[in-house]
Amino acid sequence: MQLNIYSDYHALSLRAAGEIIDLVTNKPNAVICLASGDTPRLMCKLLTERALKEKLDFSRCTFIGLDEWIGIPPESEGSCHFFFQTLLFDPLRISPAQIHLLDGMSKDPAQECAVMDKTIFDKGGIDLMIVGVGMNGHIGFNEPGVSFENYSHVTDLNDTTISVGQKYFSKPVALKQGITLGLKHLLESKKTIVLANGQKKAVIIKKVVEENISTQIPATVIRMHPQGVLMIDEEAASLLKKETT
Fold this sequence. Notes:
By secondary structure, this protein is α/β, with parallel strands linked by helices. It has a single domain, classed as Rossmann fold (3-Layer(aba) Sandwich). The chain has a seven-stranded parallel sheet, sandwiched between helices. Strands 4-8-7 form a three-stranded antiparallel sheet, with helices on one face. Helix 2 links the parallel strand 2 and strand 3. It is globular.
């Protein structure tokens, strides 16, 4: 795993957006998997601004969504669907045919997972995956204790995830399960970047970097990836041992 530390959240987000632009420039038909949430929000905004300014062509790309809340409709402001449509797909005029998001309202979530897995395999795998890390070390809805061998699956949400997740909604919602790509997808992606920013992430980042690789801290899986990169700002890195940084 490569560890990159940036001065602040803006510098981190700018570099992450640059990773996507560099990939698409070199591989116009790239398959890109992205996470929604607070950490990648600025990255998406900066990506959109630069893409529109430079008239970058995303017409041959495939976009994969990392996860979705079970039981939350796509038009809800807290859904992953809403995040991507608002910040990326609508501004960049991405065709629906290029977009593959998990449906949290599906009556058959297992089939939804199977379709997503087949889509990724048929596309030749994920070229670049950019994800965040939760306060409990989760990636997507791969909660503590999850197997590193899972592909897409439905999961019961950890109490921390349920509590933190309320911030995305204008009023309290019942969050119990999520549908998510598995960590096997992360390990098989050609390159995976994990993002983290802010002092609030310093404790979990210290565990991700310095403790043993373990399913109890799912984000430690990034250390198993031959092209894995942990990109964090100085606040998130503040508790790391000096020899690490």
